């Protein structure tokens, strides 16, 4: 459960900085090394959330980390080694089939936040979509396509189709860099067969978010359009960071204001960060010595997110 971050530029002969080491230790709930498989990561992070979704709680899984550290791989995986999306949906359908006396429906929508506008990945021709807040205070996306699915194969095809529509561009740091935050929302609704009892409907929402990596223009050598995209990505991640910081300090200081309105991303995730949701953040770091700063920032971010207390 411990990550030790060594500074690659540290020189043992440097007398001036002898006792000012930048070596840091972070204690997290779970740490995986390079030998961990997709199955291991899935079982120890996400598998326990599925029961909650079926019994009507919300759950959120984030993939966070610098560009090129493997977020999309963790979430989507490859055809022969699927990631968290597919494994979660597989287990969800299995668990739902096992529940007796309940009718259930599963619908999913897949969208991306690109340059602070929302695009529907299952129906890209619908243009940019608006965020609206309904009277109960939950955030809705006007005109998003919701597709009902009954099995994993259908979901897999939908995800693959949606992922082809995602904005990906090569940068100097990463050949298939995601230029947008992708958000898969699965809604599970259940009704009991017996209509005589009061009509009880349970709704559980599962959000799976593949964030775009924060990046430095110097490292990715972005110019023009890529640079603008990078600025938008960094801005929304900063807004997310501010929300996490405010939420983690809220215990000590009740007056802390959490600004979810700073970006579309944080407004979408309002419920999953501070609200009625069980949330897992999977932080990715790269072992390369060139990305020491990025790894340090990511670990601080993840460590801070651990202090958020929510009442589900």
Automatic annotation (TrEMBL):
Q: Which InterPro entries match?
A: Kinesin-like_fam, Kinesin_motor_dom, Kinesin_motor_dom_sf, P-loop_NTPase
- Cellular component, GO, one term: microtubule
**Superkingdom of source:** Eukaryota
Places the protein is found:
Cytoplasm, Cytoskeleton
Q: Is Coiled coil given among the entry's keywords?
A: yes
* Record: residues binding ATP: 65-72
What are the record keywords, sorted?
ATP-binding, Coiled coil, Cytoplasm, Cytoskeleton, Microtubule, Motor protein, Nucleotide-binding
Q: Nucleotide-binding as a keyword?
A: yes
What the entry lists under SMART domains is as follows: KISc
Q: A GO BP term, please?
A: microtubule-based movement
One MF term in GO for this entry? ATP binding
Main localisation: cytoplasm
Kinesin motor domain boundaries: 1-308
Family named by the database record:
Belongs to the TRAFAC class myosin-kinesin ATPase superfamily. Kinesin family.
Q: What is the name of this protein? A: Kinesin-like protein KIN-8B
Native species = Indicator maculatus
């Amino acid at each position: 459960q411990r990550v030790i971050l060594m500074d690659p530029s540290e020189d043992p002969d440097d007398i001036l900085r002898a006792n000012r080491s930048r070596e840091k230790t972070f204690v997290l709930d779970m740490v995986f090394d390079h030998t961990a498989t997709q199955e291991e990561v899935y079982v120890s992070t996400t598998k326990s959330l599925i029961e909650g979704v079926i019994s009507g709680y919300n759950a959120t899984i984030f993939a966070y980390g610098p560009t090129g550290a493997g977020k999309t791989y963790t979430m989507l995986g490859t055809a022969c080694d699927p990631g968290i999306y597919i494994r979660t949906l597989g287990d969800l359908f299995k668990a739902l089939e096992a529940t007796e006396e309940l009718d259930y429906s599963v619908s999913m929508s897949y969208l991306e936040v690109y340059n602070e506008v929302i695009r529907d990945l299952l129906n890209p021709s619908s243009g940019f979509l608006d965020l609206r807040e309904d009277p109960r205070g939950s955030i809705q996306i006007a005109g998003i396509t919701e597709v009902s699915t009954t099995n994993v194969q259908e979901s897999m095809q939908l995800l693959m189709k949606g992922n082809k529509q995602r904005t990906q561009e090569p940068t100097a740091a990463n050949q298939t860099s995601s230029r947008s935050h992708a958000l898969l929302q699965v809604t599970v609704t259940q009704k009991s067969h017996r209509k005589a009892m009061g009509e009880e409907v349970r709704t559980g929402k599962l959000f799976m978010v593949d964030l775009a990596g924060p990046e430095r223009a110097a490292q990715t050598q972005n110019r023009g359009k890529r640079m603008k995209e990078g600025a938008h990505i960094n801005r929304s991640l900063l807004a997310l960071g501010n929300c996490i910081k405010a939420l983690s300090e809220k215990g000590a200081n009740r007056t802390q204001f959490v600004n979810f309105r700073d970006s579309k991303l944080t407004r979408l995730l309002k419920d999953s960060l501070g609200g009625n949701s069980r949330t897992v953040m999977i932080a990715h770091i790269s072992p390369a010595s060139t990305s020491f700063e990025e790894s340090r920032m990511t670990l601080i971010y993840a460590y801070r997110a651990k202090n958020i207390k929510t009442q589900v």
